[in-house]
Specification:
Two copies of one chain form a homodimer.
Chain A (H helix, E strand, L loop, with lengths): L1 H11 E5 L9 H6 L9 H12 L5 E8 L4 E12 L2 H4 L1 E10 L8 H15 L4 E6 L4 H6 L3 E10 L2
Parallel strand pairs in A: 4-5
Antiparallel strand pairs in A: 1-2, 2-3, 3-4
């Protein structure tokens, strides 16, 4: 009964935009699996949440909630950069994609990347880009991305 | 008289933020040396210029004007992305760096990259990143950058 499993998975793992209450559903702990992410206070979280929300469609954070556990198990963000090139074109930048270590192998990362790429396309971006490690290249190829350039970085702290 | 040359170069090549009148100083033609950049109307330019200006320090375009020719000969942009990771940290993204083909070899690209990286640092970013071709890797290494990841892209048009 594969179709029932798929349907029950869809009910269990709900894809949506970040809500302010997601701080209590493990959103920050999930980000800790990605990189350095110290705890922040409720006030700091709210301030950043509202700042990002004020950008409207120009900055969107996608989450997947495991409804059985009331826990955020995948996330990623996209922001829309406005340019002069390409007829005053727009580019989507995908950042901070991570799937909870306990929820891998269920295509949740692909769903997040698809949600973010769709958002970029629907807001009129001519392309969407992201930086990733060599290890994640094959994953993003399955999501329809191709390698183009290299990423350079300069740290201040 | 090397110091006089340096000083006269500094007077000739002025580094500053983009102004709306730069459309008449070859700013769009300079971007055409970077990528596809069809001409835009004055109204389209003004609209995008004001939209970007409304972001304040979160989106800055640097230009270098050749004062002898009243011509924009180098440019690059940086925008500040706000995150939840790294204590609600910020990251600068450098984009669209180009130096006029007639003005290369005078460290103008390095000045633009320096201006943009300084801006990111001064607005509190913990790092600044950019994507470039393998051919430009050595240039950005001279500007203090190191290679980190790979860039993936998905085009919509």
């Amino acid at each position: 009964m594969e179709s029932n499993t798929a349907s029950s998975d869809e009910q269990r793992y709900q894809v949506r935009k970040l809500e302010i209450t997601d701080k209590n559903k493990g959103f920050m702990e999930l980000l800790q699996q990605l990189t350095v992410c110290d705890p922040v206070t409720d006030e700091e979280f709210q301030e950043r949440f509202e700042e990002l929300k004020s950008y409207g469609d120009d900055h969107v954070i996608c989450v997947i909630e495991d409804m059985n556990l009331s826990k955020i198990v995948a996330t990623g963000s996209v922001f829309v950069e406005k340019k002069f090139i390409r007829n005053c074109g727009k580019v989507g930048h995908i950042e901070d994609v991570v799937v909870d270590s306990s929820a891998r192998g269920m295509q949740l990362g692909k769903k997040v990347a698809g949600f973010l790429a769709d958002h970029a396309r629907l807001t009129g971006c001519y392309k969407v880009i992201l930086d990733c490690s060599d290890d994640n290249k094959a994953f993003y190829e399955k999501c329809g991305f191709k390698q183009k350039e290299i990423q350079m970085v300069k740290y201040f702290i």
